[in-house]
């Protein structure tokens, strides 16, 4: 077993350097493979989306497409998975018929700063809307009613008190409304409070524009596109969960019988908005109906799935957002929030990191063999 330190990097710069070094290995199979870096955000900060790309050598029948770090901090696990794949799976791909497109850090600022959102506080996976005005009224209304819960409201002064207050707000019957509001906001985003959690943004972010261009290019160039979008936190602890787009026309049962993977879920149609894989499927349907597309999220579970885990999730998300905007009086409170956030999206535990590597291999076998990428 290769050492964990090799795969799980402590910061954005190191993770990106490792990714860039994959080019050499990939060129052994695809001699014309190239690395490109797209600058994102503030000119003074060196944040880039990095892409390694190659056409197939003979005919562009299919392409393997990985995206990582759409949610910043979640990109560390995605980079580990990409690294593992480059080390151990390339020999099972036929480069004559298969192209490759690997993306490191769709949200490089978030990855650098260990946040989930980008430099504009936007959850990028709620930013892929066809028409932002049309979808968000009801969500924004519920969100507004419960806004004291989601909007930063002063410095964190006493973490125990803040945490207890949030827990009881999320637990009590009276606050059922705010619980629903935050569940909805999680899935649909909210488009009114730019300092609030689950903000989807009012304009198309740079990263969104960039990924849309790549999606279009792949659908135009290849007959079949096989896409795995790597994330963390959702699903059973230490297991991988595939989350299929609502626009994937196959039912959950059908997906389960086709792909031999334990956890497979489907987004429910009216609960998720602005998702990037949904956009990919819509684009395929409307502009490239003859191209075959497989596109799904793959999540490595951390806190788990019960109601208690859900409360811990919301509490963590809310406190991290408050800390970012307002700060904390006590250093130990600040550290507590940051540790909890890391435990949710990039745990340090050996057991979790091992599970990322072993569960990723299950997904490679389950999806990429069935889809004809791996022989
Ligand atoms: Zn994510």
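Q: What amino acid sequence fits the structure above?
A:
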């Amino acid at each position: 077993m290769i050492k964990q330190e090799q795969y799980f990097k402590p910061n954005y710069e190191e993770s990106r350097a490792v990714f860039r070094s994959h080019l050499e290995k990939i060129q052994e199979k695809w001699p014309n493979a190239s690395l490109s870096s797209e600058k994102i955000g503030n000119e003074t900060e060196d944040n880039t989306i990095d892409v390694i790309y190659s056409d197939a050598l003979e005919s562009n029948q299919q392409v393997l497409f990985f995206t990582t770090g759409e949610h910043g901090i979640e990109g560390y696990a995605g980079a580990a998975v990409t690294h593992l794949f480059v080390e151990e799976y390339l020999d099972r791909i036929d480069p004559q018929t298969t192209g490759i497109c690997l993306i490191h850090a769709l949200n490089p600022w978030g990855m650098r700063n260990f946040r989930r959102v980008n430099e504009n506080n936007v959850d990028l996976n709620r930013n892929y809307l066809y028409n932002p005005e049309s979808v968000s009224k009801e969500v924004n209304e519920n969100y507004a009613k419960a806004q004291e819960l989601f909007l930063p409201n002063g410095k964190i002064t006493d973490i125990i008190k803040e945490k207890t207050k949030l827990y009881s707000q999320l637990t009590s019957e009276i606050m059922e409304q705010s619980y629903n509001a935050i569940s909805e906001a999680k899935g649909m985003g909210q488009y009114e409070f730019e300092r609030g959690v689950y903000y989807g943004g009012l304009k198309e972010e740079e990263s969104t524009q960039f990924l849309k261009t790549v999606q279009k290019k792949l659908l135009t160039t290849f007959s079949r596109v096989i896409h795995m979008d790597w994330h963390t936190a959702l699903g059973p602890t230490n297991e991988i969960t595939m989350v299929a787009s609502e626009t994937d026309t196959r039912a959950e049962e059908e997906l389960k019988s086709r792909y031999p993977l334990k956890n497979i879920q489907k987004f429910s149609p009216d609960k998720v908005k602005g998702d990037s894989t949904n956009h990919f499927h819509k684009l395929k349907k409307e502009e490239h109906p003859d191209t075959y597309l497989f596109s799904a999220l793959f999540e490595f579970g951390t806190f788990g799935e019960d109601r208690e885990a859900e409360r811990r999730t919301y509490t963590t998300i809310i406190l991290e957002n408050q800390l970012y905007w307002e700060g904390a009086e006590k250093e130990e409170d600040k550290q507590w929030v940051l540790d909890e956030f890391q435990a949710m999206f990039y745990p340090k535990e050996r057991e979790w990191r091992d599970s990322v590597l072993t569960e990723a291999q299950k997904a490679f076998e389950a999806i990429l063999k069935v889809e004809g990428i791996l022989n």
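Q: And what stands out in the fold?
A: The chain has two domains: 4-116+205-302+347-369, 124-202+305-345.
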